[in-house]
Amino acid sequence: MTMHILSAGDGYAYYTSETVTGDVKRENGRELGDYYTEDGNPPGVWIGGGLTALGVTGTVTEEQMKALYGEGLHPDAEWIITAAQAQGKTADGAIAEAKLGRSYYGYSTGGTDLKD
After folding, report:
1. Measured distance CA(13)–CA(79) in Å, rounded
2. Helix axis angle, 91-98 relative to 77-86, nearest 10°?
3. Rounded distance, CA 54 to CA 29, Å?
4. Rounded CA gap, 72 and 66, in Å?
5. Does 62 have pLDDT greater than 70?
6. Are the CB atoms for 43 and 59 separated by under 8 Å?
7. On the chain, which terminus has fewer CB atoms closer than 10 Å, C or N?
8. What residues contact residue 74 under an 8 Å CB cut-off, 6+ apart?
């Protein structure tokens, strides 16, 4: 078993595009799970004390990683948003249903305003 720390934002993308595919870009049409079965590594699974509250179990999907680490939403945000909109919520209201806590901080790299 290996464990990795993931950063908020698009940090998860490195893992899904290169690390889990042997540090090479994933080819078009190749599913993330193909790496696990072809190379004999087991897929990632949800662990931790908050699983009951989130209601997630089993294998971690790329969509769940994107929602949680990339967007700060519930791992099953797509389903939650679809269900909320079916109940008449606006797009913003539906996203609010799937949001977990505060938005991630955004940092500006700033510019250089050098003058001669």
Report:
1. 21
2. 140
3. 30
4. 9
5. yes
6. yes
7. C
8. 54, 67, 68, 80, 98, 99, 100
Distance of alpha carbon 9 from the chain centroid: 8
Written as one letter, the residue type at 85 is Q
Of 44 and 55, which is predicted with more confidence? 55
Residue in the structure block whose two tokens are 């908050």: 50
Angle among Cα 102, 108, 109 to the nearest 5 degrees reads: 145
- For the segment 35-49, the average pLDDT, to the nearest whole number, is 68
46 Cβ contact list (under 8 Å, min separation 6): 56, 57, 58, 60, 75
Q: Which amino acid is at 48?
A: G
Structure tokens at 100: 């977990």
